[in-house]
Specification:
This protein has about 550 residues and is of the alpha/beta class. It is built from 19 helices and 17 strands. An eight-stranded mixed β-barrel has the order 8-9-11-12-13-14-15-16, surrounded by four helices. A five-stranded mixed beta sheet has the order 2-3-1-6-7, with helices on both faces. It has a two-stranded antiparallel sheet with strand order 4-5. Helix 11 runs parallel beside helix 13. The longest helix is centred in the N-terminal third of the chain and has 40 residues.
């Protein structure tokens, strides 16, 4: 092959590669414009320029071929080749960047609509889906249900075993819930330990059946890191169009029903009841006001005397919480403690109660007034791993002995998680704190737990005391309870004593202590002190630790 022919082959090859590279660039730009939908003017201009360059390269090649290739054509051919490959690389890099940005955008969009932990849709996605279901139901005239579910006892899992274990429980629960639903049903993690559901084409009976099925997924233990964890679930539901035709209203109504379900012991399903809806607004206001009450000094302790029947002397008092609401007046615990339990304020309320009771006890000790004080612990307090340290801190700070405060727990509060409750009570007992079983007889496991609970005192519920002289069944129950408690080396307090005939019956049954309006009602501290100092008061003041 001659030198001229070799030169021709080289230049033709260079021009051919240049055209191929530019065609590749044009193809990439077309992908960007038409597939990736980058429709800006700049990309259209670049596509047009690329096509013009391809035409120019072909023209240059034909012109050189017709007049004969010369050595001088090699430099422009190489420059064209370099520019073509540079354009190809730039277009490919642009495509990769656009695809990377789209992938990042897709991931960001997914994360914005899904929960990081469970990968379930989140609250934002749920609201969007609910809006779609509402629109479809209105168009087709169909029914659907909105459910909100909240776990019972889950906070105790986080507090005792840690959030990592709690997270694993939520992930497993999410899988169980999803597997219990139909393909068209929609599940989302509403936040924390709450989940939300939309059940298209579902009426009341079907929605209640699904709710019960959802609750049943918590029947089996959650096995995490060698722990067998038991939790429950409460569900509230609202129906379209029965309760409302708008998504936000249905969510609010389902939340109201959920609150009603959680106000009952155990796992429950509640359907929205319009008659109770006024309570929802009131509940929100009361919750806000209760937070303010803790800082404004609106909470107050009343004290009710407890009398030793053997010595006929007041040996201790029970501290009972009251709220002097600026608009509603004096509120009893039944009117706001359940709200405190539901909103998470109960532990702050308990800490305040412990501190105030201990301060009052310290003042009485300094004045030589020999009384002990008992306070009540809630379900949340029993599940709080820090409760022992909090009590120890209060007693040490005020230089009080461990048995100065008696802590009262109800049977019902222990039934939520008996083993965990007993564990907390044993820690308190080992610290030297006096314990009492309050409202004894109202729980469903009274006899089986009486021996296991490390309490020195049993307080018989007023339901078995108030009609004691007239009701033979109540007398049998009271007599049996007193005998059983004495056999287990425990002392007995009868609550709700209102008449002298009741007192006489309790003396006959050898009850140890009485408490009730026959002795005195709950009183503010100043009124109690005046009552104790009144010479007409038939009861004296006993010695500390007489009731333990």
């Amino acid at each position: 092959m001659s030198d001229g022919q070799s030169l021709t082959v080289i230049i033709v090859g260079v021009i051919f590669l240049s055209v191929v590279a530019m065609v590749g660039s044009a193809h990439t730009i077309c992908v960007i414009v038409f597939s990736r939908r980058e429709r800006s003017r700049g990309w259209y201009f670049l596509l047009l320029a690329t096509l013009l360059f391809i035409a120019a390269y072909i023209t240059f090649g034909l012109d050189s071929f017709l007049r004969g290739f010369a050595l001088r054509d090699m430099l422009p051919a190489l420059i064209i080749l370099g520019a073509s490959f540079f354009g190809l690389l730039l277009s490919r890099h642009a495509l990769e960047s656009i695809d990377g940005l789209k992938r990042y955008g897709d991931v960001a969009h997914y994360k914005s609509l899904h929960d990081d932990l469970t990968s379930l849709p989140n609250r934002v996605a749920f609201r969007a889906r609910l809006g779609e279901v509402v629109a479809e139901a209105k168009k087709e005239g169909s029914h659907f249900a909105v459910l909100l579910a909240d776990l019972n006892g889950f906070k105790g899992v986080n507090d005792t075993l840690g959030h990592f274990v709690g997270d694993d429980v939520l992930v497993e629960l999410g899988r169980r819930l999803q597997s219990s639903l139909r393909a068209e049903d929609y599940l989302a993690r509403w936040g924390g330990d709450e989940f939300a559901f939309v059940l298209p084409n579902t009426e009341r009976v079907g929605a209640e059946e699904v709710a019960e099925k959802l609750i049943s997924v918590t029947d089996d233990y959650f096995c995490v890191e060698e722990h067998e964890i038991s939790i429950g679930m409460s569900v509230g539901l609202a129906l379209f169009p029965m309760h409302s035709g708008e998504g936000p209203d249905l969510l609010r109504m389902a939340d109201t029903a959920l609150y009603e379900a959680k106000s009952k012991a155990g796992s429950n399903v509640c359907v929205y009841d319009p008659a109770r809806d006024d309570n929802a607004t009131q509940r929100l206001m009361m919750n806000k006001n209760l937070q303010l009450a803790l800082t404004r000094g609106e909470l107050e302790l009343f004290y009710q005397p407890i009398v030793n029947l053997r010595t006929q002397r007041v040996t201790s008092v029970e501290a009972l919480l009251r709220w002097r609401h600026p608009d509603l007046g004096l509120l009893n615990p039944d009117e706001f403690l359940r709200l405190a339990e539901m909103s998470g304020l109960i532990r702050r309320v308990t800490r305040w109660t412990m501190d105030q009771a201990a301060r009052q006890l310290r003042l009485w000790r300094l004045r030589g007034l020999n009384l002990d004080i008992s306070i009540n612990l809630s379900i949340s307090d029993l599940q709080d791993v820090n409760v022992t340290a909090q009590i120890r801190n209060v007693l040490d700070r005020l230089n009080l002995e461990s048995g100065a405060l008696t802590l009262e727990v109800t049977e019902t509060s222990m039934m939520t998680d008996p083993d965990k409750a007993l564990e907390s009570l044993y820690r308190l007992r080992d610290m030297g704190v006096s314990l009492a079983i309050d409202d004894f007889g109202t729980g469903f496991a009274s006899l089986s737990y009486l021996k296991r609970i490390p309490a020195r005192t049993v307080k018989i519920d007023r339901a078995f005391i108030q009609a004691l002289p007239d009701e033979s069944d109540d007398k049998i129950i009271a007599e049996s309870t007193i005998a059983l408690a004495h056999a287990l080396n425990k002392v007995v307090v009868a609550e709700g004593v209102e008449h002298e005939s009741t007192l006489e019956a309790l003396v006959e049954l050898e009850c140890d202590y009485i408490q009730g309006f026959y002795v005195a009602p709950p009183m503010p501290v100043a009124e109690l002190e005046s009552w104790l100092e009144d010479p007409d008061t038939p009861w004296g003041i006993g010695q500390p630790n007489d009731m333990v």
